[in-house]
Amino acid sequence: MSTEGVFSLSPPFQLTTYRHIVEKRNKNTQKMSYFCGHMNIMLQHMHFFFIIFAIFVRTAKAAGQENPLVDLSKREYLVELAGYGEEKLSTVLVSGAVLAYACLDEENKIYPLPVSGALVSVTCQTSRNTKSSSAQAQAMTDEYGDFIIDLPSHLHAIPDLDKACLVSVLRVPEDSACPRFLVRKPKAIWLSSAGNGIRTYTAGEIRIQDSREGLSKAGTGKALE
Asked: What domain of life (predicted)?
């Protein structure tokens, strides 16, 4: 049988084909090695972080506490919601003015005088269940009779603060227009402004009156509503 019609590869062509196959196989092997190397590194990192997290949770449970990450997130949320905590997130101010109405017989009229150095108090009910649960903040009036009281942070979250807090005049200087006075009723407050984390309540004018039989003689005074 003649072999002239049978197709056969020449030796140079066979060598070229073999080299091509070997090079392609080497490239695939390098790609697989690169991919496997990265996968091994990622698995090692994941395994390391898993061990650290397990130790962290086990330590917290051993101390008889809940997950510290959950506690921290809850605390930050409550602090932001209420507006108080270690970091002061809000400001609540109570302002007003103390004025004395002295009656001058020779002029037969009443005119207000600012009372400087008067001790003013804000009392807030911290619980609706009992009247004994209350907190107090104080301030002195300036030369114009004005006062501004910065409420403590733990009072900022009281619901309906304007209904829970009252303002009273506790003491006035002996040399004021009304050295002796009687406070009939504490003054209520109302919200005057709010914005940028600052709420301002005001009691308006707190008027105290001292009946006199002249400029030199002082009688019994009273607070006007």
From this structure: Eukaryota
In a domain, 151, yes or no: yes
How many whole angstroms separate alpha carbon 145 and alpha carbon 176?
11
Q: How far apart are CA 167 and CA 81, in angstroms?
A: 27
Answer yes or no: is 14 within a domain. no
- Is 123 domain-assigned? yes
- How far is C-alpha 162 from the geometric centre of its chain's CA atoms? 19
**For residue range 50-91, what is the model confidence (pLDDT) as tens digits?**
677 777 666 655 554 545 544 545 555 544 544 444 455 689
Q: What is the pTM of this model?
A: 0.54
The CATH number that applies at residue 177 is 2.60.40
- Three-state secondary structure call for residue 204: strand
pLDDT tens by residue, 102-140: 654 445 456 788 889 999 999 998 876 655 567 889 999
User: What are the backbone dihedrals phi and psi of residue 197, each rounded to the nearest 5 degrees, phi first?
Assistant: 75, 10
Q: Which residues sit opposite 121 in a β-bridge? A: 138, 168
3-state secondary structure of 38: helix
CA 96 to chain centre: 25
In terms of phi and psi (left: phi > 0; alpha: psi -120 to 50; beta: otherwise), the region of 49 is alpha
- Phi, psi at residue 130, to the nearest 5°? -140, 140
Assigned domain for 214 exists: yes
CA 168 to chain centre: 28
